[in-house]
# Entry
Amino acid sequence: MVKMSQDSVQVMSGQVKEIQVSPSSNGDSRESWEEREEFDQDHLGLTTKPKPVTGRRARKVEGGVFFEQKVFEQKGVEEYLRYQIEHENEPFAPGPAFPFVKALEAVNAHMRELYPESEELFDIVLVTYNHAHVGIRLINTINHHNLFIERFCMTGGSSPIGYLKAWHTNLYLSADADKVREALAEGIAAATMFMPEKLTEVSESQLRVAFDGDAVLFSDESERIFKAHGLDKFFEHERENEDTLLDHGPLKGFLEALGKLQKKFYAKGQRLNCPIRTYLVTARSAASSGIRALKTLRAWGLEIDEALFLAGAPKGPMLEKIRPHIYFDDQMFHVEGAAEMGTIAAHVPYGIAQKHNHKQKNSVGK
# Structure
């Protein structure tokens, strides 16, 4: 099962919460949770707060619609809870991760057709900072939008990280960068979700996930060489270490979980029309530094459906063509570039790039 957790802000707009996504199961056995991905509820697309962030056209996904957030900030938690209870029959609007969750459910539906008894499914767990009193509105919203989210975790203001570990989370998405860093420090794959001002239409039948390379799927080893010694030394290092595998990055496990599900479809002759498709979108150049990345993926036993080596060219236009449900990158200027083209992007605050200017646009170790 693939375990995923998200903040509710990402799934629906109008509250401060989170979500997890894990493969569904009928029991609590460890095997039934093997491939779970957890999402912060804010990232599942049910909640978005229109608060500008670093990017000109990227908005951070945060808990609560602006007015409701003002109630919380100006009048306190009691008035906020009272407001939510009074409006519990009014569903939250879809947020940026809403199409992502619908795609997960489409994959589950297809998997059930091929494997009626299989428990290897995406299991979506809603994790929220909110008080349990807000639960009725959340459930009403889930039902209103015909989403299949059975697992909730309402922490009443406490950190959700301990619960993420208990869920054996494969992926945690949140609007709160501090929570994401806390999750990464605990070894949980995590990213901070952002949304563009405009949204590109995405597939309703095929889940598409795009990854940056260094400091996302791989370690930041090569990026450190580039930052410290420049481009020429970077190319020299990659050529000399062509047959030396890169160490894993924070989202390797998530790609593995997706790959395990893909192989279930391949076994039924579904390779060409598999409902899961993965992409590597990297600023590495193919001839001078791409081979090491591909050899590493092969040695890990991982397949990536499409690999785009852009040699420093902007990623936004390629992402606009791919139309992924989510794109992961460790540098904010790439996240912003994706958002400018209408792509939902998530920032992975990991590696040496976090200590450098996010606006530096000549990074190659990606």
The two ends are 29 Å apart (CA to CA). Residues 14-57, 60-65, 357-366 have pLDDT under 50 and may be disordered. Residues 98-114 form the longest helix (17 residues).
